[in-house]
Specification:
Layout (H helix, E strand, L loop, with lengths): L3 H22 L9 H4 L5 H32 L11 H15 L7 H27 L6 H24 L2 H11 L8 H28 L3 H6 L4 H23 L5 H12 L5 H26 L3 H22 L1
Length: 324
């Protein structure tokens, strides 16, 4: 049963999200009227770009924190996330291969969005399988963070090498993608992204109940009838699909998958996983809309903004853990 506090938090976040969406629609180098969004006027194309921007920010705000929330609950580590564990970096590496070398392959235009997302998802799925197999070998979960960091560094080195040998136009396309250019996402790409996010959320929905049992301990979870192998597959599928699909279309958005679950645990009971998931999605949408407004006002790339806000929070988390 949902508490009164939880309902109030959700209501406040929903109101703030609606306000953030309205501010986003009115943020840009041109002022638009209400009819520009509903009628065929000279500014309709700009209005459509802004609507697409809001939709993709909402999808990113749902997906990245959910991915981080699942990994943190499964690994029982508040620093686990798609970027710290290397999933974002490997997805970026897969996308780099696609962007930098796809001009040599004849791919029909209607399949290009699918190949872009599949390349990112394939790379992140592979890494999640490796991480989950390594998690059984590491008694100390902090070693998993170090392993993920090493994977990120290795993926970054390969990307730098690819950029060095890439052609000018391919390099330009990759750099634009890596900046997190939310204005470049088209309506068709949003349809593909929405479908991928819905599938990822379905896997997440199926994993919450067994995650509650898993949080009480492996032995206790098995006594409750939790299929740990099935849970592992659900975590792989949901986390990889959600983080990689956003990375494919929006570029690497760093640290949101860590800081949003952290804030949600501060404002509400961390043992209530269903409510935590909902709060993660609402707060994630609000933060991404906020970042989008800053990006439009300042022309600073999204991934830079997320890093500027995210790194101090993670440092405070580390200091807090050290004191404990």
């Amino acid at each position: 049963m949902m508490s009164k506090r939880f309902k109030i938090l959700c209501l406040l976040l929903i109101i703030a999200i609606i306000g953030g969406a309205i501010v986003n629609l009115n943020t840009g180098f041109l002022s638009l009227s209400l009819q520009d969004f509903f009628r065929d006027t000279a500014q309709s194309q700009i209005a459509e770009i802004r609507i697409n921007r809001v939709f993709v920010m909402l999808l990113a705000g749902i997906s990245i924190p959910t991915s981080g929330f699942l990994m943190q609950e499964y690994f029982q580590n508040p620093l686990a996330g798609p970027d710290i564990l290397g999933i974002t970096s490997v997805a970026s590496l897969s996308v780099a291969f696609y962007i930098l070398f796809s001009h040599n392959i004849l791919i029909p235009e209607f399949l290009q969005n699918s190949f872009l997302s599949l390349s990112a998802i394939g790379g992140s799925l592979l890494l999640m399988l490796v991480l989950l197999s390594m998690s059984n070998k590491f008694q100390d979960k902090s070693y998993l963070i170090i392993f993920g960091f090493l994977i990120s560094a290795f993926a970054g080195a390969i990307v730098s090498l690819l950029q060095f040998y890439a052609e000018n136009q391919s390099l330009k396309n990759y750099i634009l993608w890596s900046f997190g250019a939310n204005n470049m996402v088209t309506r068709n790409q949003i349809y593909v992204l929405s479908a991928l996010v819905l599938i990822g959320l379905f896997f997440c929905f199926k994993s919450i109940k067994p995650l509650i049992g898993n949080s009480l301990g492996t032995s206790y979870a098995q006594s409750l009838g939790v299929n740990l192998k099935y849970l592992k597959l659900l975590i792989i599928a949901a986390s990889s699909l959600l983080s990689a699909s956003i990375t494919a279309f929006l570029g690497p958005i760093l640290f949101i998958g860590i800081i949003v679950p952290h804030f949600c645990r501060l404002i509400y009971n961390p043992s209530k996983l269903w409510q935590q998931w909902i709060l993660n999605m609402f707060l994630g949408m609000l933060i991404m809309l906020f970042f989008s407004v800053i990006a439009e006002k300042t022309q600073i790339p999204l991934n830079v903004i997320s890093s500027v806000f995210g790194i101090p929070v993670i440092l405070l988390m580390l200091l807090k853990q050290n004191k404990v």
